[in-house]
Every structure is written in structure tokens, then in C-alpha cells.
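Inputs:
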Amino acid sequence: MTPEIARVMFVVLGAMSVGSAVAVVAGRNLFRNILFFGVFLLTIAGFFFLLEADFVALVQIFVYAGGVVVMLLFGIMLTSRITDQTVRQTNEQQGFALVSAALLAALLVAVLLTTQFPEGSGAAPATTTALIGKLFLTDYLLPFELISVLLLAALVGALVGARGDEPK
Amino acid sequence: MIPLAYYLTLGAVLFCVGLYGALARRNAIAILLSIEIMLNGANINLIGFSRVGAPTVLSGQVFALFVIGVAAAEAAVGLALILAAYRHVNTVDVDEINILKW
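Outputs:
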């Protein structure tokens, strides 16, 4: 990929991701919020492709855009009411939240754009999957096993929490 | 090659958009969505550092995969908690779920 194409893709993906993120947090219709969240996740996967992290990008599409979005859609279908679209979607802290988030963003951007980050040398591996698999089973074996326990606990916990009362 | 600072700036902006949503939204599921946006902003930082800082070592990508796994678990448990609360108080509006206050 030539640098010009990469730059154009970065600008387009950046505009899409920030725009869809704003649509998620500022929109009134919860269903549309979740659809924009799906768009947001796909643009993030695009950034991962741009950064040559192909395996992470595919996991992002499978797990997030495939799994989490569907689960959230089930969540709103089980909990929302007809009146929900007419009620106010923000609480009375909205102004303070906007100011503090904007200040934090300004601070972070000012720091990031003036800092010199070290740059490593060498090319990225052509296929990342094999190397990631090796890392999972060598350097990161303990966290890898721990996350499988965490996922099992989350599975059981979500079932128990969502099941409700036993039918008598 | 796009400079690393651009990716980090993008991650910071997305994090702050999610922060605003988590602070200001009333619907519990919308708060969950905002937290997921914040986690994705952090993931862009991790992948960006991995690509530019140490291209031959993929530790940053492994971290991002862990974050994705924990975020999926968090969404599942969070939704289960929201459903359980909805059955008790018949709302997902966090301003109205105040039965632990007196």
C-alpha cells in the first residue's frame, strides 16, 4: 500500500469512526445507537488492518461486530419500552460531562502531539497469526489460561443473572 | 507511514467521546456501549504502539486480544445484570435505579 492511499484511508476511517462514535453517544434512538456502534466497530477493524494487525482485525469483526452487537440488540429488545424514544436520554450532569471530556481530550491531544515516541526498527511479520499463537502459549500462558477461566465464570454468571426465577 | 501520534490522538478522542457517553447517558445499555467505545480507543493505542514501537514483537496485539476477550465477558455480564435489574424495578434508567439509596 502506498503512503498516499494509507493516508487517505486513515482520514476516511478516522472521520467515520469519530462520527459513528458521536452518533452512538448522542443519538436518541437506542436501536440506531447500536447499529452505529456496529459501524464504529468495523471502522476500528479497518484501523487494525491499516496497522497490519490482520488477526486482531478479524477477531474484532467476529467477536465484536458479530457477537457483542447481537447480544446488545437482544438486550434492548428485552428491556426497552415504547415511551423510551420520547424521554430525555441524558442526565443533568450532561454539561459537566461534556466540559470534562472535552478538557481531557484537549489535554491528551496536546501531550500526544508534543511527545517524541521511540520508534522500533524492522518490518512487521507477514502473517501475525502464527506468532500470536506462539506468544499465547509461551510468554502469555498464564493470562491466556486465566482468561479462559474468566470467560467460563462470565458465561455461568451471565446465565445465572439473566435466568430469573424458577418456574414453580 | 502514518505517524504514531495520529493514531494515539484518534484513540484519545474516541476515549473521550466514550467518557462523555458513560457520564451523561441515562440508559444503562447506552452506558455499556460508551464503555465499549472507550475500550476500543485503548485498543487502537495498543495496536499502534505495537506496530510502530516494536514491529517484530507482537505483544501489543496480544494485549489487544486480551482486552477484546475481557470486553466481551464484560458486555455479557453487564447485560445480565441490566436484565436482572430490569425485572426488579422495571426500568433500565440508571437515574431511577436507586433502591440501594435511602
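Remarks. The mean pLDDT of chain B is 90. Residues 20 and 34 of chain B are 8 Å apart (CA to CA).
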